[in-house]
Design goal:
It is built from four helices and ten strands. The chain is α+β, with helices and mostly antiparallel strands and about 170 residues long. The strands form three sheets. A five-stranded antiparallel sheet has the order 1-4-3-2-10. A three-stranded mixed sheet has the order 6-9-8, with helices on one face.
């Protein structure tokens, strides 16, 4: 999943004007010359911290934001047994039925082997992390569960770094 934080120096009192309390959405737009089109992603604001007046008219604060799944996962509990299934199928089930991620937003690489596993009262992201430590591919590769600009992924591939990024943060109503 994705998360971030941004520190703002606010002379317009946006927090009060928009009555921000930590359930808003922000849209992050990232662009760089080598991209065909900018990457746009919406996030849920889950808290606003470190509110400090720098001067009499400027308020500094930090907006913390994350993907919807990250914010909702702690309120969901999974106690479920899976019998004779591949880890990739278990992860797919959790993403579709507990996190409510649309299937076109998932890209899960098939894992090897079938298992009988009981998920013992975990939130969905804890369960997925726990399952991926037990997953392996044909070459006994380690699996990662992550979210890229388009969807949630479970792969053996390494994460790519991005240099020369330009980022724009937009407040939006949903």
């Amino acid at each position: 999943t994705m998360s971030g934080e941004v520190m703002l120096s606010d002379a317009l009192d946006i927090v009060s004007v928009f009555a921000m309390h930590g359930n808003e959405f922000v849209k992050v737009v990232i662009d760089k010359p080598s991209l065909d089109e900018p990457i746009e992603k919406s996030f849920r604001v889950y808290k606003i911290t470190n509110r400090v007046y720098d001067t009499g008219t400027t308020l500094n604060y930090v907006i913390h934001f994350a993907s919807e799944e990250t914010v909702l996962a702690p309120s969901i509990r999974i106690s479920k047994s899976y019998r004779g299934m591949a880890v990739s199928d278990m992860v797919r089930d959790i993403c579709l039925n507990f996190l409510k991620i649309k299937s076109d937003k998932l890209n899960i690489e098939e894992t090897e082997g079938v298992f009988d596993i009981i998920i013992p009262n975990m939130d969905p992201l804890q369960a997925i992390h726990w399952l991926t430590t037990r997953a392996y591919g044909q070459k006994k590769s380690v699996f990662f569960f992550y979210e890229d600009r388009d969807r949630s992924e479970e792969h053996t591939s390494e994460l790519q770094s991005h240099s020369d990024l330009v980022c724009r943060l937009l407040l939006e109503k949903k």
